[in-house]
Amino acid sequence: MTQDEIIEPRTVVGIQREICAKHGVTIEAMLGKRRDKNVVQARHEAIRLAYLRTELSTPKLGRAFNRHHTSILWAVGR
């Protein structure tokens, strides 16, 4: 699935579910502290999409992903 196939508008929860399904990880793993490569890749992809497709601030996205807002900035910058 490409980014163009994701239907607008999207919610953070919808993006999390879709990216978890794409990468084969659970939402609990994505929102948890695990740092396995596949979990981190899924988390960063979901954060980037949520940042681009929602109007939430980085602190609000941080709360949605159980991360500090600077982690959101790091994921978006990758």
What does this structure look like?
This protein is globular. Helix 3 (37-53) crosses helix 5 and helix 4 (58-64) crosses helix 5. The chain is built from five helices and no strands. 23% of the residues are buried. 64% of the residues lie in helices and 0% in strands. The chain has helices at residues 12-23, 27-31, 37-53, 58-64, 69-77. The mean pLDDT is 90. It is mainly α and 78 residues long.
Itemize the secondary structure elements and their pairings.
Elements: H1 12-23, H2 27-31, H3 37-53, H4 58-64, H5 69-77
Helix pairs in contact: 1-3, 3-5, 4-5
Helix content: 55-70%
Distance between the termini: 20 Å
Shape: globular
Indicate the structural class.
mainly alpha
Task: Kindly provide the radius of gyration, computed on alpha-carbon positions and rounded to a whole number of angstroms.
Answer: 11 Å
Largest beta-sheet details: none
Oligomer: single chain
Q: Identify low-pLDDT runs.
A: none
- List the total number of helices: 5
Q: What number is the mean pLDDT?
A: 90
Got a strand count?
0
| Strand content range | under 5%
Question: SSE string, helix = H, strand = E?
Answer: HHHHH
Give a short overview.
By secondary structure, the chain is mainly α.
